[in-house]
Design goal:
Two copies of one chain form a homodimer. Chain A has helices at about 10-15, 20-25, 35-45, 55-60, 75-90, 105-115, 130-140, 165-175, 195-210, 225-240, 250-260, 280-285, 295-310; strands at about 65-70, 95-100, 120-125, 145-150, 160, 185, 220, 245, 270-275, 290, 320, 325. Chain A is of the alpha/beta class. Chain A has three domains: about 10-50, Orthogonal Bundle (434 Repressor (Amino-terminal Domain)); about 65-160 and about 295-325, 3-Layer(aba) Sandwich (Rossmann fold), CATH 3.40.50; about 165-295, Rossmann fold (3-Layer(aba) Sandwich). In chain A, the strands form two sheets. Chain A has a six-stranded parallel sheet with strand order 2-1-3-4-5-11, with helices on both faces. In chain A, strand 9, helix 12 and strand 10 (about 290) form a beta-alpha-beta unit. In chain A, helix 1 (about 10-15) packs across helix 3. The longest helix of chain A has 17 residues, at about 195-210. The first copy, chain A, is elongated and about 85 Å long. At the A-B interface, helix 4, helix 5, strand 2, helix 6 and helix 11 of A face helix 4, helix 5, strand 2, helix 6 and helix 11 of B. Chain A binds a DNA duplex through helix 2 and helix 4. Chains A, B: Keywords: Activator, DNA-binding, Repressor, Transcription, Transcription regulation.
Chain lengths: ~325, ~325
DNA sequence: AAGAAACGATAAAACGCTTGCAATATGTTA
DNA sequence: TAACATATTGCAAGCGTTTTATCGTTTCTT
């Protein structure tokens, strides 16, 4: 016995109306006499009819599904964004197809094409470095795309971020104001514009403002994992730095722990400011001072923006910058 | 100008073959003469044809998409599972529709129906408490379902877990062997079978084995967040307990931090064993001794099991139990 | 060299729904 | 009550694939 499905046709027959009328009822089209609507709804209920979204998608050319490309869901930074995205998506009756890319540009392209083949109504992209090929795919497709927590130097597509440059500047100034002259910049890959452009220039600006001199030796390039931080700690210390701005919480915790395990006192011997204000900053001791990014909101606003784009609504500004701040905790004086 | 799509028909016309032939080469059906295949592939490439997955889904009744119901992606425990799921899904050419339920049973039912409406080929469910209504929906649908990190007392559907009872017993025995007589059991909602049945009976068994007596006063019911742990610490201490088995890492860290902030030494004054072995256990000081669960693998294996189910393959055992262990760290002696 | 078998390709019927347009029913105005 | 406006419904053509039944060709067999 095969999976015997109830179709709109069955409902129409049972209710003595046409498929069109059933369709109207299902879609909340107001051009249906209340009594007819009631009759149809009863039959729908009785037969336990459930509209086939795939058929709907084919007929209407809308899938009420959006694709989400994310480097790694199991990373707290991205999963926070993802949660914001999904909540707003749900609010607007969309579902999310979530795919991990590991930040690998080849995978990103594949995944994007796969999502477009599935006829998603829109795409939210999170990634570090947007390659030319990817940008080409973006513009080739007529599907709306929004970047979340990722900057596109070209601003061709919509995006939601904070002012990374300004935030970094403020954080470094805080450190400088505390008397530090050698402040390390512990970054993710400098190839990512968000690090190599935005944050780095914020760092430089702060140094200049405070009359400190820039030194290559204080720049550390790394990936974002805890372990990297642990491994990096000694080198950072040997550079002569007495404070650091770190771009990832895991990384920052790694450095802080390694330093402390080596007998240093934080913040007395070394001060740290991190960048994501995730739960980690609250959990470790001392708690970490952090730039505050509204992660959940970045996701939520990005999705909201995407709904407008998908709806062809008028957009005031497709590049939105959310407010940031600095939450002072125990890792700075 | 409307989004002008290339269809299989365009390809067929350009290549002087029928739609059916194009379909065959796209689907790798061997019944096509190599020369014809080559010709078709050239046209596909030239026109940049991309098969419409929605139309395929309608015609073939397969969407190569699976639904994933998760309480909260931004929780490290679940996002680890999710990552395992997605990796294996990708391996088998499936995509994932990810939806957050907050563990709310009403939402779970809605979401499930929504996913089924979208004609997903299978569902992976993560949740705490499986209500009767949900179980009814499970059995009503002919779509394969697998539980990941969630136990169903009925074992009606497939599931992947560890032996929570055994793991908890071992953990409590460890504490008892260290001389503790009053060991707290800090649990999530006892309504969840995983807590109220599995873990709790593991706890009781351990007490019995060690000749300790069970006391209601040592059982704490809570949710899983860090803040709950902080708030709970004092009560746990007042209960007279000198050690605790905690079912969630966030919760455990909350308790550990609150205790230490109150001047207690861990493990000297209080010992803790937690349950998820997430990054948190490694990050905090002292590091937390934990039951080890292969989170990523639970997700991965669940998805692998689901592929077999979707493929109607012979299943040796649809309830799989993965190995666990205990990783001793600084929160126990 | 005729017939069987194997192969390659086609035509057309689904798949389950939306939607523009036509048809019918109902209501209103004078 | 005729004539016209408006509210409800039905018809049927897609939407872009897959897939089955069918047919025309080749290739063997003997």
């Amino acid at each position: 016995m095969e999976k015997q499905t109830i179709t709109i046709y069955d409902v129409a027959r049972e209710a003595n109306v046409s498929m069109a009328t059933v369709s109207r009822v299902v879609n909340g089209n107001p051009n249906v006499k209340p009594i007819t609507r009631k009759k149809v709804l009863e039959v729908i209920d009785r037969l336990d009819y459930r509209p086939n979204a795939v058929a709907r998608g084919l007929a209407s050319k809308k899938t009420t599904t959006v694709g989400v490309i994310i480097p790694d869901v199991s990373n707290i930074y991205f999963s926070s964004l993802a949660r914001g995205i999904d909540d707003v998506a749900t609010m607007y009756k969309y579902n999310i197809i979530l795919t991990n890319s590991d930040g690998d540009s080849e995978k990103e392209v594949n995944v994007l094409n796969n999502l477009l083949a599935k006829q998603v109504d829109g795409v939210i992209f999170m990634g570090h470095h947007i390659t030319d090929q990817l940008r080409a795919e973006f513009s080739r497709s007529r599907t709306p795309i929004v970047l979340a927590g990722s900057v596109d130097p070209d601003n061709q597509v919509g995006s939601v971020n904070i002012d990374y440059k300004g935030a970094t500047r403020e954080a470094v100034e805080l450190l400088a104001n505390n008397g530090h002259e050698k402040i390390a910049f512990v970054s993710g890959p400098l190839l990512d514009p968000i690090n190599g452009k935005e944050r780095l220039s914020g760092y430089k600006e702060a140094l200049k403002d405070k009359g400190l001199k820039y030194s290559e030796g204080l720049i550390f390039e790394s990936t974002f994992e805890y372990k990297q931080g642990v491994d990096l700690a000694e080198r950072v210390l040997n550079s002569g730095a007495t404070a650091a701005l770190v771009v990832s919480d895991e990384l920052a915790v790694g450095i802080a722990n390694a330093l402390q395990d080596n007998g240093l006192k934080i913040p007395d011997d070394f001060e740290i400011v991190t960048s994501n204000n995730s739960l980690l900053t609250e959990i470790v001791r001392p708690r970490l001072t952090s730039i505050t990014q509204p992660l959940y909101d970045i996701g939520a606003v990005a999705m909201r923006l995407l709904t407008k784009l998908m709806n062809k609504e008028e957009i005031e500004e497709k590049v939105v910058i959310l407010p940031h701040g600095i939450n002072k905790r125990g890792s700075t004086k």
